[in-house]
Amino acid sequence: MSIRTGVSEGVATIEIARPEKKNALTIAMYQAMAEALDAAQADAAVRAVLITGQPGIFSSGNDIEDFMSRGPGEGSINPESPVFRFMRALIGIDKPVVAAVTGAAVGIGTTMLLHCDLVYVSDEARLAMPFVGLGLVPEFGSSLVVPRLMGQVRAAEKLLLGDPFSPQDAVEAGIANAVLPAGEVVNHARRVAERFNALPPGAVRETKKLLRRASAEEVLKTIAVEGELFAQRLRSPEAMEAFQAFFQKRKPDFSKFS
Questions:
Q1: Which residues pair with 62 in a beta bridge?
Q2: Would you write out the chain's pLDDT as a tens digit for each of its 258 residues?
Q3: Separation CA 199–CA 104 (nearest Å)
Q4: Of all residues in the chain, what percent are helix, strand and coil, respectively (each to 5)?
Q5: 3-class secondary-structure state, position 120
């Protein structure tokens, strides 16, 4: 399994541990992360969750080969699929979630950060949401949340053009709290997560609910709409060209599409 989990000092850790594939996420990994979040929610000893990756890589996003081997669209529209289970678990957990972004965060590697409570980014990290370049559309509520954080025109750079952004950009946009040296980001994030051991858990839970109350229903509706379109786009000729180009290590040619 490429997801490592454990509980220590009141913190449940979810570590994405597939560095040989740049921490690309498979269906099985989504399932494991969903189960780990559900377990943390149910465990009274857990006061916070820490999500992290490997040195130099947080996650390169979905494992295209794994997704395509299951058939275009499978797992991207079924509300009971591991992908949606993970999304619901991350949005629904009422305990604080702290992310330590250890390096590159691509696709859902970035969009999952929108649903964490505290985010600390390595100075070596680069974030990107290159969905359109793959013939796809944004996911995990990013088409709603990113414009609200960045404004419409800057969101267009990130979601239409797929422009990457720096750790400093992430802080400025309100996606991350701070940039730290690569060797310090995980320990810092863990120390922050451990601070919740000294805080009243009921007050923490209710405050988190209040912080997210206004947008919670709208985010879930947006995720459902995005999921429908994402599944359709996975079956599109444009996506097929993008994926073939990816596997053939060439630049995709979209000139024949209108």
A1: 25
A2: 699 999 999 999 999 999 999 999 999 999 999 999 999 999 999 999 999 999 999 999 999 888 777 654 454 556 678 999 999 999 999 999 999 999 999 999 999 999 999 999 999 999 999 999 999 999 999 999 999 999 999 999 999 999 999 999 999 999 999 999 999 999 999 999 999 999 999 999 999 999 999 898 999 999 999 999 998 998 899 999 999 998 898 999 999 888
A3: 32
A4: 50, 15, 30
A5: strand
Distance between start and end Cα atoms, the chain = 42
Domains of the chain: 3-183 (3.90.226.10)
Residue at token pair 């275009």: 72
- What span, in angstroms and rounded, lies between the C-alpha atoms of 109 and 100? 11
The SS3 assignment for 136 reads coil
Extract the tokens encoding 83. Answer: 């992908």
Q: How far apart are CA 106 and CA 128, in angstroms?
A: 5
The 8-class DSSP code of residue 77 comes to S
- Residues with Cβ within 8 Å of 9's Cβ and at least 6 positions away in sequence, in order, are 194, 197
